[in-house]
Amino acid sequence: MAGRMAAWGTKVVSKTTSGTLALSRVAQPHLQTFWGHARVELVPPTPSQWPAIRQGFGNLFNSTLSGKFLDCSVKEATRNSLVAVEIACWFYVGEMIGRKSIIGYKV
């Protein structure tokens, strides 16, 4: 019995090791692409970018007041709605991570 358990354990370890190596070989190019994009997209804005950000918020405010946002296609409205849902979901996931609980705050 002990011999079979030892053989089974050796088999599991060898399969796990070979599977992990294969997974790392497959995942490496994808991770390199991800980190290349992350270095560009996930950095905070530099001080030189603040005027453009301020202008973008001003344009958003002006289009809201003038009603220009209503003149968009269904495709654009769907895309904007999906972006808003994504932002809301990230907020709620961040809240759950922050409080370490899915259900409410511990008061």
Automatic annotation (TrEMBL):
Keyword annotations for this protein, in alphabetical order, are: ATP synthesis, CF(0), Hydrogen ion transport, Ion transport, Membrane, Mitochondrion, Transport
Any GO molecular function: proton transmembrane transporter activity
Give GO BP annotations, semicolon-separated: proton motive force-driven ATP synthesis
Keyword Amino-acid biosynthesis part of the UniProt annotation: no
- Where does the UniProt annotation locate this protein? Mitochondrion membrane
Q: Which InterPro entries match?
A: ATP_synth_F0_gsu_mt
Choose one Gene Ontology CC annotation of this protein and give it.
mitochondrial membrane
* Main location group: mitochondrion
User: What does the sequence similarity comment in the record state about its family?
Assistant: Belongs to the ATPase g subunit family.
List the protein's name: ATP synthase subunit g, mitochondrial
Q: What organism does this protein naturally occur in?
A: Geodia barretti
